[in-house]
């Protein structure tokens, strides 16, 4: 199993280019199932989840021609309307094939995602929405089996805000008969990116990016070209790394407008930040100030940045309160950070961190994608060597992270 060896204590300096967003790429790749024409995507990140999605679509009969950071998807001959357990269990986002398969082919079998390291993460809202649109759904042998002659439009109000739930129902609605209104919809930028791609394919969608999305179904979609938006979580991760380790870095190809809450917190921590078009420059000298964080749906502070800010707080001046409101059990990184000497107390969904001057390198284990990123950041500020084990989590959702951090001056190496 591969690990990362990190020597702490090096400042970050230089420029790094931001990759395409995992959470936009995955739903948009699933949108290729909605048409028999070719969908050409650019700026696809090179990471395991994208490769898993390519494999899943290929298993269904989608023809995929890949080149560097781009791919063309042709779903002219789809012959297997199924997402099997072994794929859904490694990548929950595989649930995103449910809406497109059902609305175009009238049937889908998708494995239930099952347990997940960051909480139970059910898919009841996806199912409820599809039933409201006329689907018949049975859970059998651990699979969601959905059928519908043709889905029809419906008014659907989400009980709670779900990103992939919004995306799945939006994709189902684009080929449904009539008008669908999604209320209390997710406002994440990745939902807008998916909507933009669907609109380029001929869909009629209004309101993406607000909490009310209206979709008028059409009888068919056509091919399109789309460039996947830059990854705001990768952007935030590099910025937090530089704020914790100190230095002067510039992100290029970033989407500044998607990072408001993260940039605000970094400024509060003492970072000097300048933005210019798609470039973000961060300068950090001295020790960061502790910052309180409360996760909530976009545009509030993202749960996918919680673990990285926890790492920053471990070496900050003062104490911080971090509240996780989206996922239960998303504090798995805490006990690993404690192995590095961090002082953290957890009570329910709240963590209190007392910043210390220095962490001490140790062997730690990655437990989920963003927890892994927090351990890498902690390793970069710890004294001596930190070994991060189980980095397959990191490889799922970051493109060449150790190469990118090394190019900024971090001492980080992949070992067997
Ligand atoms: C997406 C992101 C993930 C991010 C999360 C929250 C992708 C591929 N993944 O995950 O990186 O951390 O949004 O920003 O885009 N819920 C239910 N029933 C449902 C669906 C969700 O109870 O049917 C609950 C979840 O357990 C969770 C909350 O709703 O507590 C939000 O989850 P959701 O927005 O659906 O997360 P994902 O879309 O899975």
Question: Brief overview, please?
Answer:
With 416 residues, the chain is an alpha/beta fold. It has 14 helices and 26 strands. The protein has a four-stranded mixed β-sheet. A four-stranded mixed β-sheet has the order 2-15-17-16. Strands 4-5-3-14 form a four-stranded mixed β-sheet.
Characterization of this structure:
The protein is of the alpha/beta class and 416 residues long. The protein has 14 helices and 26 strands. The strands form seven sheets. It has a four-stranded mixed sheet. Strands 2-15-17-16 form a four-stranded mixed sheet. Helix 6 links the parallel strand 10 and strand 11. The chain is elongated, with a radius of gyration of 21 Å. The protein starts with a strand and ends with a strand. The mean pLDDT is 96. Uridine-diphosphate-N-acetylglucosamine (UD1) binds next to helix 1, helix 5 and helix 6.
Keywords:
single chain, 416 residues, alpha/beta, 4-stranded mixed sheet, 14 helices, 32% helix, elongated, binds uridine-diphosphate-N-acetylglucosamine
């Amino acid at each position: 199993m591969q690990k990362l060896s990190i020597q702490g204590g090096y400042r970050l300096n230089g420029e790094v280019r931001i990759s395409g967003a995992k959470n936009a790429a995955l739903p948009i790749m699933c949108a290729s199932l909605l048409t028999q024409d070719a969908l050409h995507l650019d700026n696809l990140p090179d990471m395991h989840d994208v490769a898993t999605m390519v494999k899943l679509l290929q298993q269904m009969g989608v023809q995929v021609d890949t080149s560097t950071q781009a791919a063309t998807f042709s779903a002219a001959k789809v012959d297997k309307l199924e997402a099997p357990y072994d794929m859904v269990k490694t990548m929950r986002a595989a649930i995103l094939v449910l809406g497109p398969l059902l609305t175009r082919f009238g049937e889908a079998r998708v494995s239930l995602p099952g347990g997940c390291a960051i909480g139970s993460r059910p898919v009841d809202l996806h199912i409820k929405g599809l039933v409201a649109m006329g689907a018949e759904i049975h859970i059998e042998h651990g699979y969601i089996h959905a059928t519908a002659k043709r889905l029809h439009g419906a008014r659907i109000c989400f009980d709670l805000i779900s990103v992939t739930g919004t995306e799945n129902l939006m994709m189902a609605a684009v080929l449904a008969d009539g008008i669908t209104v999604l209320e209390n919809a997710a406002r994440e930028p990745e939902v807008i990116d998916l909507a933009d791609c669907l609109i380029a394919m001929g869909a009629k969608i209004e309101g993406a990016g607000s909490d009310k999305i209206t979709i008028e179904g059409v009888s068919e979609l056509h091919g399109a070209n789309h460039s996947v938006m830059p990854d705001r979580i990768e952007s935030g991760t590099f910025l937090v790394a530089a704020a914790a380790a100190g230095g002067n870095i510039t992100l290029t190809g970033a989407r500044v407008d998607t990072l408001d809450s993260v940039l605000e917190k970094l400024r509060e921590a003492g970072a000097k930040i300048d933005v210019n078009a798609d470039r973000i420059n961060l300068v950090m000298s001295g020790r960061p100030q502790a910052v309180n964080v409360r996760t909530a749906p976009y545009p509030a502070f993202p749960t996918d940045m919680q673990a990285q800010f926890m790492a920053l707080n471990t070496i900050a001046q003062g104490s911080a309160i971090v509240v996780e409101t989206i996922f239960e059990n998303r504090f798995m990184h805490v006990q690993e950070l404690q192995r590095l000497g961090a002082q953290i107390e957890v009570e329910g969904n709240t963590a209190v961190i007392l910043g210390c001057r220095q962490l001490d390198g140790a062997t730690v284990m990655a437990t989920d994608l963003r927890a892994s990123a927090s351990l890498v950041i902690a390793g970069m500020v710890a004294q001596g060597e930190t070994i991060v084990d189980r980095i397959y989590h990191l490889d799922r959702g970051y493109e060449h992270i150790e190469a990118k951090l090394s190019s900024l001056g971090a001492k980080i190496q992949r070992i067997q």
